[in-house]
Amino acid sequence: MYLLLSKSYVKLDNRLFGFFLIILSIRVLKSLFYAFSTIEPIWFLQTGPAFFLLIGPALFNYVAVVGVFSTFWSRKWKIHLFVWVLAVCLMMVVMPFWNFRDLYKDILLPIINFQWLLYIMLSGLLVLKGIKRGKRLTLLENWLITLLLSNLILWICLSIIGFDYFITGSLVFSLLFYVIFLFFQFKKRLRSKVFPKNKGWKPVNIVPHSQKLLQQLQKIMEEQKLYADPKLKIADLADKVDATPHELSKFLNVYLNQSFTEFVNNYRIEEAKNLLLSSDNRYTIEAIGNLAGFNSKSAFYKAFKSRTGLTPAKFNR
């Protein structure tokens, strides 16, 4: 709840991780109730396991957004999560747990567990995709690998271990959670990199002007095509919207969840796509990158593939 509500952690990845932790914690709490409850029915248990379907998608969306390994999934996380929330609501309305106990326990719960495992594996593929061969693992990559391994261990405890040892899942969750929590508590420098705070920044101050500032930025970028200048700096753009570079950087990070480079490159990629699709295109791919504002062929290829999933040459086919 702290990660979801704190004004210090307004970045999207922090919010998604908080949501993931809440859903996972509720599942662990349910297993605890299930193992020790002596009175039937207990309302907390009667809600059923339908919302367990949100654990895997929440984990996957966090990995996609925090690592930006797949621009498609990092942009479509809202639709992705909405589909599963809708599925959970439909299951709880159409097939309430108290009327379909045997169906849930014998058929649906194994399917739900398999879905969680599948999302752990898909999240692992995203991480592997982002790891650069021959280079040392970054702090973020180490963190994501640790998170996925912890999920896998917990999945084994909650999905395979029999009822007589059902409490094992809760104990393992507590152990993993507090070990990781204490690690980040004592390693504040590492914590600030994995869960960045917005120190000294008050998002509430920018909200009344955020839409106006965004419209200014879009109008200037589209009409004046500042992105075409490979030497464009944040100070140049800030001067155009009557803001300091620091204020503009904060706005892009908090309101758009983008760095200055990402913001400008989005316009450059769109310009490059238009040039590539032009029927009378007479430019080479390298020339198109230069016209769009990239200062090198390698920077153009890297940014283009990161956003579209294709190289400029394949996109042009």
Shape: elongated
Major beta sheet, specifics? none
Task: Please provide the count of β strands.
Answer: 0
Mean pLDDT: 84
Proportion of residues in helical segments: over 70%
Q: C-alpha Rg, in Å?
A: 23 Å
Number of domains: 2
How much of the sequence lies in strands comes to under 5%
Low-confidence stretches: 200-208
Description:
The chain crosses the membrane at residues 16-36, 48-69, 81-101, 107-128, 140-161, 167-184. The protein is an all-alpha fold. It has helices at 2-5, 12-36, 43-46, 55-67, 71-75, 77-94, 101-130, 139-159, 167-186, 188-194, 203-224, 234-240, 245-255, 260-277, 285-292, 297-308, 312-315. Helix 4 runs antiparallel to helix 6, helix 8 runs antiparallel to helix 9 (167-186) and helix 14 (260-277) packs across helix 15. The longest helix is centred in the middle third of the chain and has 30 residues, at 101-130. 21% of the residues are buried.
Summarize this, please?
The protein has helices at 2-5, 12-36, 43-46, 55-67, 71-75, 77-94, 101-130, 139-159, 167-186, 188-194, 203-224, 234-240, 245-255, 260-277, 285-292, 297-308, 312-315.
